[in-house]
Amino acid sequence: MDSPTRFSVIIVGAGISGITAAKVLAENGVEDVLILEAADRIGGRIRKEQFGGVTVELGAGWIAGVGGKQSNPVWELARQSNLRTCFSDYSNARYNIYDHSGKIFPSGIAAHSYQKAVESAIQKLRNQESSSSMSNPDADAETPSGPKTPIELAIDFILHDFEMAEVEPISTYVDFGDREFLVADERGYEHLLHNMAATFLSTSDTRLKLNKVVGELQHSRNGVSVKTEDGCVYEANYVILSVSIGVLQSHLISFSPPLPRWKTEAISNCDIMVYTKVFLKFPRKFWPCGPGKEFFIYAHERRGYYTFWQHMENAYPGSNILVVTLTNGESKRIEAQSDQETMREAMEVLRNMFGPDIPDATDILVPRWWNNRFQRGSYSNYPIYVNHQLIDDIKAPVGRIFFTGEHTSEKFSGYVHGGYLSGIDTSKALLEEMRADKERKSSENQSFLIEPLLALTGTLPLAQPDTVSNLHKFDIPRRQLFLHTSKLGVPEAIL
């Protein structure tokens, strides 16, 4: 059992926000930082795995927001690391929509269905805005009918679940550009985190501890005590919690005393999105691979049922890998069943699209983000017309506990750069608090020195400690204090 060693800051979680926060603290002279990571690796929801002879990204896979006037900081990190990426063009996906008999919907029908879905989404959002402001109590009566046909359901899924499309301009694209690049590097997306960590952590640095599952945080005005499931106790002046919103909702970590109600309500009111990329390896490719064919869609009568597909030939030529994306309810459903059953379902869909003679998949990889107790989902999902107080409450510190992660980023929640920028913002806020705390203690120490001196000079009676606990209660000019104490040889600097 580790003995309680006092650190300035303990960071719980070594994802991009936690590593970034630690880096900023180190750059500002706070080096006695301890990072506790529950998994056996750093990266959090950025995670690579070898599959079918190549490196695939189980979690975050794209750098979104590239090509604008302002540079995306994660794109800059990728450039500095020479990370290999491939441009992703989704614009033609809507024209590659297959029905259950393998026919592609005519482009005119696809375009009309897409436009109808967009208009429906806009109207629905306007109604939500009106309803939330109570300016239109009859808004529900104007709500357009929802998607019903397979193609409408498929496009609705693409708009809302895959693209994270919003009617309001998306800050990521407004600020950084509307291009997206798929990470296709053998070193993985996580290579960016390893490079960052290497700037302040040495190899086998004891300030990074893996396989440390934090179970309890005891906090008071004097500090924080962190208990891990293996019985170790670590103490610090402050804690930065960089765990996901899903983990906060799951109560993996208990707080003593409990978090205030405003905090727990804010945490519970944030939705968590589950986003699952299922990888399938084949002995040969049987799907179109020309320009504009990277993404294709299956229109099923059940929304989100093996809807969005991508081939990996652009990223890894000759890999013969397909990826199908499932979300939320479908993600949780396949996590609960065997991989063999998921492969059977996926193959049935593929044979509907490409015929009965296609070969069976030789391997499958199914990530389980929802059932991973260290993640409990993929990313936060705020409504478009979000109450700004909700995000303020989620990211607000509670005493000496600070919160960070993509869920604390109002502009960029759900994105890797949201996690990165939140790590910077949280560490800067903590540095300000540490400086203010140092100044408060310095002021208290000065008061401790001055009070007996004032008593000796006859200015204030020593027998009344309560009346001299705060000098600001007395209208004593600073220069006057100096004149009293200078007779005793006390330098002005301590005042």
What does this 3D model show about the protein?
With 495 residues, the protein is an alpha/beta fold. Helix content is 34%, strand content 19%. The chain has three domains: 6-45 and 190-271 and 380-436, FAD/NAD(P)-binding domain, CATH 3.50.50; 48-67 and 84-182 and 275-365, Polyamine Oxidase, Chain A, domain 2, CATH 3.90.660; 446-494, no CATH class. α1 (16-27) links the parallel β1 and β2.
Summarize the structure.
The protein has 495 residues and is an alpha/beta fold.
Could you name the key traits of this structure?
495 residues; alpha/beta; FAD/NAD(P)-binding domain; Polyamine Oxidase, Chain A, domain 2; 13 helices; 19% strand; globular; disordered C terminus; Polyamine oxidase 1; FAD; oxidoreductase
Spatial shape = globular
What portion of residues is helical?
25-40%
Give the mean pLDDT: 87
How much β-strand is present in the residues?
15-25%
Number of discrete helical segments: 13
CATH topology of the largest domain: Polyamine Oxidase, Chain A, domain 2
Derived from helix and strand composition plus strand pairing, the structural class reads alpha/beta
Number of strands: 21
CATH architecture of the largest domain: Alpha-Beta Complex
